[in-house]
Design a protein that fits this description.
By secondary structure, the chain is mainly beta. The chain contains 3 helices and 28 strands. The radius of gyration is 31 Å and the shape is elongated.
């Protein structure tokens, strides 16, 4: 009997020690919605670094994933506003197989459930956490901090890990684009390694950098097209119009309202970078002369394509076929019956010429 009582005493002490070491938890409970009014469904991933809770229990660095169904979020977390050292939670919202939003939580101790708004750290703020309160400090509240941050390069839209760093036209850091066997040039472009200058300045099928979300209008290509008119941007296979659908400044594309790429769109860019080929010239995005009225079939180019097969004709962004849709003789383009441009159509032509 004595041995059993002593065992029971040790067990009780061990259980009490474990219970005493458990950190107090704060419940975060809310209903999440998407911007279109539907309830959010997906996964909320919460990551944290090691810290010591208010009761001195050790919280090692880890990550937890919380399933959110029909907007209902429920999670219990150790408070961070009274942690040692000051701590926070990095939170990512993932829905429809992609990360949609990220933010930081600072969780105060509470015996009643809190909403997300109660723990969300405002953008551009940092925290000094310590009992009994949490103070939010804006960057502008710290004398000289904004100026110091402005001196540091920021990550550009094309920033990528495990890539050589390239400073873009805005002074931000992008990741170099190219093959592992390429050499990086001083202007940030890449290409086949070799000595001396290169005239092989053609860029084909590049995917512009930028967020495809139906809101972002600004994208970048790896290099500034030279000339700018050499840039051909295709959206879902259709050639877009320079100035009509987008503008180009340096290596930055800005789409106009009504032409902003949507999440499921595919963008491809083709352009030249100061190509110099003896005896060869390039004509890009020319609109041939001729009445577009559904009757006229003959259109005239400013120059004669050389060779004729270099001529590419686009009608409303869709490339039409030689012989099947038109014939070319000298600098004349004649559309066949059934392919005659109609009123409101847009014709664009690109070709090479002999110099």
């Amino acid at each position: 009997m004595f041995s059993f009582r002593r065992w029971l005493l040790f067990a009780t002490l061990a259980l009490g020690s474990r219970l005493a070491a458990q950190p107090p938890l704060t419940t975060v409970q809310d209903v999440l919605y998407t911007a279109d009014g539907n309830r959010f469904s997906g996964v909320v991933t919460i990551t944290w670094k090691s810290f010591e809770a208010s009761n001195t229990s050790n919280i090692p660095a880890s990550v937890t994933r919380v399933q959110v169904d029909n907007g209902n979020l429920f999670v219990q977390l150790a408070a961070t506003t009274n942690a040692n050292p000051p701590a926070g939670y990095a939170v990512q919202y993932t829905g429809t197989h992609r990360t949609q939003f990220a933010e930081t939580w600072v969780v105060p101790p509470s015996t009643t459930p809190l909403r997300v708004r109660d723990v969300r750290l405002p953008p551009g703020a940092v925290t000094t956490q310590g009992p009994p309160n949490t103070t939010i400090i804006q960057i502008t509240d710290v004398v000289g901090l904004q100026s110091a941050l402005n001196l540091r390069p920021s990550a550009g839209a094309g920033f990528a890990v495990s890539h050589a760093a390239v400073v873009n036209a805005s002074g931000s850091i992008d990741g170099a684009i190219g093959n592992l066997t390429d050499c990086l040039h001083v202007d940030g472009t890449s290409g086949t390694c070799g000595t001396g200058s290169s005239t092989a300045g053609f860029v084909d099928a590049e995917v512009p950098s930028g967020t495809l979300d139906g809101v972002n209008a600004t994208f970048t290509v790896a290099s500034a097209p030279a000339p700018a008119s050499s840039l051909g941007v295709y959206r879902n296979g259709l050639l877009l119009r320079h100035t009509g659908d987008y503008t180009i400044t340096g290596n930055t594309l800005v789409f106009v309202a009504g032409a902003i790429p949507q999440p499921a769109d595919a963008l491809l860019a083709f352009y030249r970078i100061s190509v110099a080929l003896p005896g060869v010239g390039f004509v890009d995005g020319e609109t041939p002369t001729g009445a577009i009225n559904g009757v006229n079939t003959v259109f005239t180019l400013a120059q004669t394509p050389s060779p004729t097969t270099s001529l590419a004709v686009y009608r409303n962004g869709l490339r039409v076929r030689s012989v099947s849709n038109y014939t070319a003789t000298g600098n004349s383009v004649t559309f066949v019956a059934g392919s005659v441009p109609q009123t409101g159509d847009i014709i664009q032509c690109s070709y090479r010429i002999a110099q």
